[in-house]
């Protein structure tokens, strides 16, 4: 097991499912993250949110940096 920030730990059986659903009008994106880790948590943990389109905002491409992504393992 590895200790992350706060009291959150992760085990070698951690499983994460990310689900993104675009609204019918294309103006928002619903996001759900489902965590399972039978060694560290007793039930599935879900985090949900919504992203809204900002008219005129231009998306730019980037490469995934695994070291940077690890910083986002914090669950509050």
In a few lines, what is going on in this structure?
The chain has 76 residues and is mainly beta.
SSE layout:
Blueprint: E1 2-3, E2 9-10, E3 15-22, E4 28-36, E5 45-52, H1 66-70
Antiparallel strand pairs: 1-2, 3-4, 4-5
What is the average per-residue confidence, as pLDDT, rounded to a whole number?
79
Mind telling me the CATH class? Mainly Beta
Q: What structural class should be given to the helix and strand makeup?
A: mainly beta
Q: Strand tally, please?
A: 5
Number of helices: 1
Q: How far apart are the termini?
A: 19 Å
Q: What is the percent of helical residues?
A: under 10%
Q: Report low-confidence residues grouped into runs of 5 or more.
A: none
What's the alpha carbon Rg, rounded to whole Å? 15 Å
Order of helices and strands: EEEEEH
Shape annotation: flat
Looking at CATH, which topology would you report? N-terminal domain of TfIIb
Please give the CATH architecture. Single Sheet
- Percent of residues in beta strands? 35-45%
Strand order of the largest sheet: 3-4-5
Task: Summarize the biggest pleated sheet.
Answer: 3 strands, antiparallel
Number of domains: 1
